[in-house]
Automatic annotation (TrEMBL):
Keywords: Cell membrane, Kinase, Membrane, Phosphotransferase system, Sugar transport, Transferase, Transmembrane, Transmembrane helix, Transport. Its main location: membrane. Residues 4-86 form the PTS EIIB type-1 domain. GO terms for molecular function: kinase activity; protein-N(PI)-phosphohistidine-sugar phosphotransferase activity; protein-phosphocysteine-trehalose phosphotransferase system transporter activity. Residues 103-462 form the PTS EIIC type-1 domain. This is PTS system beta-glucoside-specific EIIBCA component.
Amino acid sequence: MNKKDLAKRVISEMGGKENISQSWHCITRLRFNLVDAEKVNIENIKAIEGVMGAQFQNGQFQVIIGNKVSEVFEAVSKELGQEHEINPIGEKKRKNIIDLIFDTISGIFTPILPAIVGAGLLKGVMALLTALKLISESNSEYAVLSMIADAPFYFLPFLVAFSAAKKFKTNEFLAVTIAGVIMYPTIINYAASGEVASLSFLGLSIPMINYSATVIPIILGVWLLSYVYKVIDKFVPSLFKIIVTPLLVLLITSTLVLIFIAPLGSYVGVYVERFFSGLFNVAGPFAGMLLGGLMPLIVITGMHYAFFPAAFASLSSLGYDIVLLPMNLVSNLAQAGATFAVAIKSKDKKMKSLAASTGISAVFGITEPAIYGVTLKLKKPFYAALIGGAVGGGIFGTFVVKAFSFSLPGITALPSYIQEGTNNFMFALIGITLSFVISFLVTMMFKFENEEKENSLILKEGNNDIDSIEISSPMEGKVVSLSEVPDSTFADGLVGKGLAIIPSSGIVKSPFKGRVTTIIPTKHAIGLTSNEGIELLIHIGIDTVKLKGDGFTLKVDKGQEVNIGDELIEFDIDLIKEQGLDLISPIVVTNIDKFPNVIINSSKTFPNYIDFTEKLLTIRK
């Protein structure tokens, strides 16, 4: 599927562009704020070719794309239109305070990551060149490179101001002006010299604090600006808006920011940084093991953005970070180790290829394709990566390994751990090597797939094994291989193992005793769970979601107990054909982690017709 069609499908399944109030992306995910989350058909989005996963996290809806996310986002932006970006409609539902904080921090920092990551990598390269004696800190080339590498961090309030203004939906240029106010040379110089502690303005004291490389003061300042602007703009007559509104907004906001907001934000940043530094000073090994091991879960939930302000505060005040960047580094290399082990151990060609490519991405600091496409999908390699990350994190915490610049936490970030006269770089190498090797070895030890019959349907003439479960056919018609389904999500086995039927009658019946666990709102698919715990998905036709329920009649309710032969759904075959849709209907066991041995009874080979009385699948326990 091309990027344009993918974007259209995603937007459509999210309830249309009128249901999207804001959109942006990170390294691997499309991120959306929605008007009404209930309009999202998350299962249909997961089934779209090119989508690796979808989830609600921290008040956002996230669609995991992988390395081509920027290309897909460009197509999404074109579909939504520029007006949508500037004047998004309001959200109906309020988020809780935790979700709101994570959503805000994520929305602010994600757009500016290219600038700070690029500059951070340059600082790492400079450290490497200096250590190798290829460049001297006293020559002009080093001075020029320093200007380029330091600029995004020194003037970070400007970048944050512009991004925060877009997030808070206020004027970007006034926001950048507020950043200019707190970064004005008078304040910077007085703060550096210590000659003047404060300036008096209307009887109030303005403390002289160096706000360069800080983020919390300007975030709070722009947040205040968004409210001041709305209030003033509401009461100023239209004739005077262009003159009076910016004057009053700038004067009021700048004064409040200089006297109250920015100093408060600065102190918050300092204490947050002290908290994390103190945590590692008191319980370094334990804190390192905990964060190194749990970092993938933190990344999946989007909570890693909560560490950004502390990381920048630490880099600004101490010149290094010991939490976010180091813990992400060991965690990412652990994911790489587990993924490469899957590439070696798996006998499935598609999984081997996917694991190899996503493993390379993980080495360079982009782990979400590896997590969602490989380790989390197979589960045990994910656990192995947690173990490896915990070991590496323990090494980093024990020896207080420091990152001296902000960079993407992958192998290219290693130069940022170089500090002459210390063993910091050596301990960093030991930590990431152990995290990689241990996760690799543990994954190789785990039996994460059926090693004799991995990801394949075994054709066998009957099955008399008493330790097995038989599943009757839920439909009548012609049996075909799942690989013939014109939807790669089913054909590639991403949903589960099974086969497909081209139905000859418009009835779906229960193939076993169990209960109804999932009913798709458009009625074209149903999920069942047998009494033994087998989860079966019956999907009527391909792209039949387009019918929006027309031609489908449900005979059961969600949670209802069913017996073999109970009618589940009645559907109109002629209507589906008239709409030009494919009738081929996948029938798959989705929880193959618990039931990996799905056997097709070969007495009914693919060209044959099958009815409700015959056994379709056998599941070995």
